[in-house]
Write a structure and sequence with these properties.
443 residues, alpha/beta, Rossmann fold, six-stranded mixed sheet, four-stranded antiparallel sheet, 16 helices, 17 strands, globular, disordered C terminus, binds zinc ion
């Protein structure tokens, strides 16, 4: 439930802060117009949800959410089905591994990912690249934007007033935009700059050193294209990811030591350096629908435990947005974004993250084959070291991600570990080394 007055999320029907009646945030639905061949975004309870705003024809329920499939990803899928360019003129969308071509769906499974070697796919992509035009894609997208104008304006207006309201209690220099190079933080930063008409806000880029090369390229482009923005990079220059892996074993879902060491640690450190005793407000691109664990977050958080730094308030203007809202904003406002999404990644985080899905792993074997191979070889070596009898299977089936405890690694057993919550994923207990992770350690 949502209190419009306090701009705060609560489980109660009456706001515990101001006592006013809270509102239920209706679920997004994606409908499909066969005439216009595009998705129409609707609220579950709206009276006109089955009517296409462009042609007035019927727009039937299609899915709970959709993401844009760019021509690069479309070609890759076509290659997996031995039909290069078959959908060149079609309106193609997706939700996880379910693809929608002109409103008809099919699913991609691990069987498709394993059908051809990465070399074969890389060659095919190259062979068809010059014919893989954006012309029809662009036509579908402009119709999609036209059909969803009203939704876009509603989202923008609501986000702008949320941002202005939250920012009104802080001097501009105490406002920070958390920038990861992902689509959500791209939209959040753009909304904040426009809502406040303030191009010189501080952007903090958390470079984990484990970013996709395309994320680094995008961050550089962002910096060049936004010369007035104050851009600070948080990075752990002291430790090398592979060295730490040698020492204590690779990260696993329940042992994501990498998050505090390479992401939240450096960001917290930079915030402490610049704002030690000040109250700060961070605009952060977290969304309620992103994952089960994230849905425990509120739109505004100022609990020191969950935000990890004293005197920091964290607020997300896009808290209720669906994936399709994010794409509607990026494409409708015509803003730059990370090219990794064109390739088919639906999240851009660390390439080695044990939470990455199978598609991300498959994409990395094609688009960053050297890094992929190096990591796979490391994991196989590690599996042998801890006595796995079928190291290749252990690695390729993703069993390494489920590892618990020290599991045969001497150094990891020696290190006293304590739990801490990773800011991104509340559920996973992240092991944090009990070595001094203080300022000097992370310089
Ligand atoms: Zn229509």
């Amino acid at each position: 439930m949502w209190c419009e007055k306090c701009k705060h999320d609560t489980p109660h029907s009456v706001c515990e802060l101001c006592g006013s009646k809270t509102e239920y945030e209706p679920t997004t639905e994606v409908h499909w117009c066969c005439n216009c061949n595009i998705p129409v975004i609707r609220m579950e309870n709206s009276a006109d949800r089955d009517i296409c705003p462009i042609c007035g024809g019927e727009a039937k329920y299609l899915a709970s959410d959709l993401r844009t499939v760019f021509p690069e990803e479309r070609l890759l899928i076509e290659i997996l089905f031995d039909k290069p360019l078959a959908y060149l003129h079609d309106s193609v969308w997706a939700n996880n591994n379910r693809y929608y071509v002109n409103g008809k769906s099919f699913t991609i499974s691990s069987k498709h990912f394993k059908k051809f070697s990465p070399e074969y796919i890389i060659n095919k992509l190259e062979e068809y690249r010059s014919q893989n035009s954006y012309a029809d894609f662009d036509k579908h997208i402009s119709r999609f934007i036209e059909a969803n104008q009203e939704r876009l304006h509603y989202r923008i207006d609501e986000a702008h007033s949320f941002i202005r309201q939250e920012a009104s209690n802080y001097p501009t220099e105490n406002i920070v935009l958390s920038f990861s190079g992902g689509k959500d933080s791209t939209v959040t930063a753009d909304l904040a700059v426009k809502a406040m008409s303030e191009p010189s806000l501080v952007h903090i880029f958390g470079n984990t050193t484990l970013e996709f090369p395309l994320t680094i390229k995008y961050a550089e482009r962002f910096r060049n294209d936004n010369p007035l923005a104050i851009f600070r990079t948080a990075i752990n220059r002291e430790q090398n990811f592979y060295d730490v892996c040698e020492d204590i074993g690779p990260p696993a879902r329940m042992m994501r030591w990498c998050c505090s060491m390479f992401k939240t640690g450096p960001i917290t450190r930079i915030l402490n350096r610049y704002y030690r005793d000040k109250n700060i407000l961070t605009f952060y691109g977290i969304r309620k629908c992103e994952s089960v664990s994230r849905s425990k977050y509120n739109r505004v958080e100022d609990n020191a435990e969950s935000v990890k730094i004293q005197k920091q308030k964290v607020a997300s203007p896009i808290f209720y947005w669906a994936d399709i809202d994010i794409w509607l904003y990026i494409l409708g406002e015509n803003i730059d974004f990370n090219d990794a999404y064109r390739l088919g990644y639906d999240r851009v985080g660390c390439w080695c993250c044990p939470n990455n899905n199978e598609r991300a792993q498959f994409l990395s074997s094609i688009y960053m084959p050297e890094q992929y191979q190096k990591w796979r070889e490391f994991l196989i070596g590690f599996a042998k070291r801890i006595g796995k009898l079928d190291p290749e299977v252990y690695v390729d089936t993703g069993k390494w991600k489920a590892r618990q405890g020290g599991n045969g690694v001497k150094a990891a057993e020696d290190v006293k570990i304590r739990y801490t919550n990773c800011t991104a994923e509340d559920h996973a207990k992240v092991y944090r080394l009990n070595r001094p992770m203080d300022d000097e350690f992370l310089v």
